[in-house]
Design goal:
By secondary structure, the chain is mainly beta. The chain contains no helices and eleven strands. β4 and β5 form a beta hairpin. It is elongated and about 45 Å long.
Amino acid sequence: QVRLVESGGALVQAGGSLRLSCAASGDTECISAMDWYRQAPGKSREMVAGLHNGGSTDYASSVKGRFTISRDNAKNIWFLQMNNLKPEDTATYLCNAEADLDKCPDLIGSDYWGRGTQVTVSS
């Protein structure tokens, strides 16, 4: 199985920066991609950024140019660098690991979530 723990959330002023971390443990060799999602109260969960093992990235249009997803391969930690934060970025941020079941057929499930870390941006 894959376990994910997010950290780095905080209260920050608009225009500020934060770096979120997602530490993975367990069957990390089975992870094929890692995504960051966010969910604000009363809103649906949205994908913010994604990083595939091949290096390709995806970003929501609302964060493109401000957020950067990266990975420390040796430590199995994924990061989300967030710059020029806006009040509308306020949300709980969660990481989501996609597992490759062809590579790891014994895994139960292909989708793993952390519990999230809170980011609050004040105006």
